[in-house]
Amino acid sequence: MRCPNPTEMDYNYNPLNKLSFSPCLNSVFRLNLSNSLKLIGFMRKSVFAAIIVISGIINISAQNTFEFLRMDLSPRAAALGGSFSANQDDPDVIFYNPAGIKELSATPVSFSFTKHLMDINFASFSMSKEFENIGRFGAAVRYANYGTFTKADEYANKTGEYSVNEVALVVGYADRFDENFNYGANIKFIHSAISEYSSSAIALDFGLQYYFPEENISIALSALHLGTQLSSYIETKEDLPLDITLGVSYKLKHLPLKGYLDFHRLNEKSDGFAERFKYFTAGAEFQISKVLTLRLGYENQKRKELKIDDFSGLAGFNLGVGVTIKSYQFNYAYSSLGEIGAIHRIGIATSF
Question: Please, how many CA atoms are within 13 Å of residue 232, restricted to the half-sphere of its CB?
């Protein structure tokens, strides 16, 4: 049985499934019928619109829980298509590869807000600090709120309202094997609640980064969300969304352009060798001036999953801009979901 995971990263959108509830709602629906408990009701807006949104932003066939961990919350990372495992200059890299925080300086802090579809919202916070002769420690939070739902009994009589939310608390550490070789690890506590049901988990992230200074190339390897549920919504415990990612970044020597490429979910089963790399993402960052940076990103699998008939629109493409004023950087990202709509992210980062 599934838990509530209406997040961006696993769409598997199929227009034929528009009238299907999310797996989580189905699980609670069936559980409540069998035990004569209260039903999970409908969203306070139109039932039809809610079903389309939820079906469109989750992976119906996935067998993982806490899928919100896959969501790109950083506007900079999202604008690059989520290709961020080889980053070394942003505190939000702690969500993608904990080894990346080692190259940060001073005490960087970042906050972001994501406006998803309807009344679904996300937020994140990250920071890190270097301790001499010990290493760099980081801390981060990611939060998801899916809005307000209406409770109903088995006769469809409204009995009240409830909210659905999820949170992950992260503590990380990074240091060097040698001058250009960094390693890092996170431990995180995850909690999810839907009405009177709740679930919690604990997980680890591991990461490596190696930098080739003469070539301006960084390569990265990370394993994210390796853990287990401590408690489940119902009797059956589910797997966390393990993600093994291989990434690379390259900065051109004579142009203010940096490219990123990540291969996500390499641990998942595939029909062939080439299929194993279908979750690749790519991004480019062009620094026009000290003040203005433009970003473009592409997500291969998302574009395929959001395709309706022969039309994809801009699904899978991401655009972003960064504006630096003194010690503050303001970031914005636009992510197209094709026919479904779009996601907007804003963020601010600074250093102390």
Answer: 17
Q: Which two tokens stand for residue 14?
A: 């199929």
CATH number at residue 212: 2.40.160.40
**Residue 100 to residues 178, 208, 209, 233, 299, Cα–Cα distance (Å):** 14, 8, 7, 34, 22
> What confidence tier does 93 reach under pLDDT thresholds 50, 70, 90?
very high
Q: Which residues pair with 336 in a beta bridge?
A: 342
**What is the token pair recorded at 1?**
């049985």
* Amino acid 211: pLDDT: 96
Confidence (pTM): 0.81
Q: Read off the pLDDT band of 63 (50, 70, 90).
A: low
**59 in any annotated domain:** yes
**In the numeric block, which tokens belong to residue 139?**
């801390």
Q: Tokens representing 240?
A: 């966390």
Nearest to 165 by CA among 181, 176, 149: 149
CA distance 234 to 222: 31
Q: How far apart are CA 67 and CA 219, in angstroms?
A: 26
CA 142 to mean position of chain CA atoms:
9
* Residue ranges making up the domain that contains 324: 15-351
The amino acid that residue 290 corresponds to is: K
DSSP 7: -
Query: What pLDDT, on the 0 to 100 scale, is given for residue 128?
Result: 97
Per residue in 151-176, pLDDT (tens digit) is 888 888 898 899 999 999 999 999 99
Task: Indicate the SS3 state at residue 41.
Answer: coil
